[in-house]
Backbone:
């Protein structure tokens, strides 16, 4: 693995909240250099003291002349000798920075310090002149490596990395790129996509749950398409009132939302009991539909541009099974939809790079790092997860699948016996008690 050299300029913003740790604020400020100012972050958690930091990172880790950008990091300090959890967020971090009660599961379990890192080129972690050429998984992993390296000088306990969804994928990538940075990795509901339209989700969804539940979802999709002439005007009005604009015609957006409904239903563990019956009014069907498949997801002005760019470059995504709906949908409009629908035409000829998929797959096949994977049984993202590792007789890699679970699967949502097994394994590895 190639070595990187990065000079880190760190600015620390200290918080004057209550200190449960005996280390105290003076010790913290004495150990972390380059203090430039103070900004208070109020958190309900009084067992940790929260600090907002901005790391100056190289846009291109291999060429300092390209320039730098500031990456947002939040530190929740519990104690220099406590375990430390680095949260490899896969998106922007506004929700964590702004929440008074933010605390992800693993930090709570380990009673650990927390380093929450916003992903490069998302939200406020962007260079002034954004060049998407440097939005790569390899560059992003170097960001996390630089931050961990800086803090390991002061936090001498065990280290773990964790993330959810794309953040969970980031946890996997990070462990593969820098396997010695942390002692334990806990990715939640993390896909490892092999293509822009991965191809495994469609068949997975055709086997999810029971036939009765699958039929209920499929029948509602048919109702939406059969009543398209009546429901589309309501759909169009809703989009106009919310000032949504799209790269493709509104009719195509409607069809894509109908297809997305199946994926979204299983991702979030919805109940078929809530699906409108066939005799429900068009308005009732529309109201339910719009709550489950918000069309802003496909609009030009949303917060997903950075994700969409990465999806087409090297992260990947999923497609839809259009075969059952060929009598209602123009297949050419929705097959290979992602680049046309989610991004401007400049991305039309982008070729997906599957290097990271192959690199991580090889790493997990050939190595046995201490990792705990959490998945939901009927979460579509599980289709592109790494559940195949269960057949590789690994000693340290453990795969846990929540029965009937969704994208909300967590350690705390597992059956009691499974929770105990996971907690015992974490205690063995992290020595947190």
Residues:
């Amino acid at each position: 693995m190639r070595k990187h050299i990065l000079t880190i300029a760190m600015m620390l913003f200290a918080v004057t909240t209550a200190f449960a740790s005996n280390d105290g604020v003076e010790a913290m400020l004495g150990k972390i250099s380059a203090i430039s100012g103070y900004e208070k972050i109020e958190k309900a958690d009084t067992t940790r003291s929260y600090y907002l930091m901005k790391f100056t990172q190289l846009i291109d880790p291999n060429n300092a002349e390209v320039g730098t950008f500031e990456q947002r990091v939040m530190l929740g300090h519990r104690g220099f000798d406590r375990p430390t959890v680095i949260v490899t967020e896969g998106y922007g971090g506004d929700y964590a920075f702004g929440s008074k009660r933010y605390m992800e599961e693993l930090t709570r379990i380990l009673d650990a310090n927390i380093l929450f890192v916003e992903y490069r080129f998302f939200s406020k972690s962007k260079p002034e002149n954004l060049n998407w050429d440097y939005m790569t998984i390899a560059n992003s992993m170097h960001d996390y490596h630089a931050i961990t390296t800086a803090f390991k000088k002061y936090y001498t306990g065990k280290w773990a990395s964790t993330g959810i969804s794309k953040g969970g994928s980031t946890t996997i990538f990070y462990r593969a790129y820098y396997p010695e940075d942390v002692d334990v990795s806990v990715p939640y509901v993390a896909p490892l996509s092999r293509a822009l339209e991965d191809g495994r989700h469609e068949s997975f969804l055709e086997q999810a749950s029971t036939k009765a539940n699958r039929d209920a979802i499929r029948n509602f999709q048919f109702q939406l398409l059969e009543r398209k002439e009546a429901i589309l005007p309501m759909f169009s009005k809703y989009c106009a009132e919310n000032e949504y604009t799209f790269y493709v015609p509104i009719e195509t957006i409607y069809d894509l939302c109908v297809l997305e409904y199946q994926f979204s239903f299983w991702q979030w563990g919805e109940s078929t009991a809530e699906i409108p019956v066939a005799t429900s009014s068009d308005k009732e069907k529309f109201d339910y539909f719009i709550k489950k498949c918000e069309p802003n997801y496909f609009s030009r002005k949303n917060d997903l541009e950075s994700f969409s760019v990465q999806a087409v470059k090297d992260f990947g995504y999923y497609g839809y099974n259009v075969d059952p709906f060929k009598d209602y949908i123009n297949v050419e409009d929705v097959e290979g939809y992602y680049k046309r629908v989610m991004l401007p035409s400049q991305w039309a000829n982008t070729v997906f790079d599957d290097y990271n998929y192959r690199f991580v797959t090889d790493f997990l096949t050939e190595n046995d790092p201490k990792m705990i994977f959490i998945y939901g049984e009927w979460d579509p993202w599980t289709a592109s997860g790494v559940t195949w590792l269960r057949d590789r007789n690994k000693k340290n890699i453990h795969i846990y699948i929540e029965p009937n679970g969704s994208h909300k699967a967590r350690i705390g949502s597992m059956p009691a016996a499974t929770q105990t097994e996971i907690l015992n394994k974490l205690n063995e590895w992290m020595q947190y008690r």
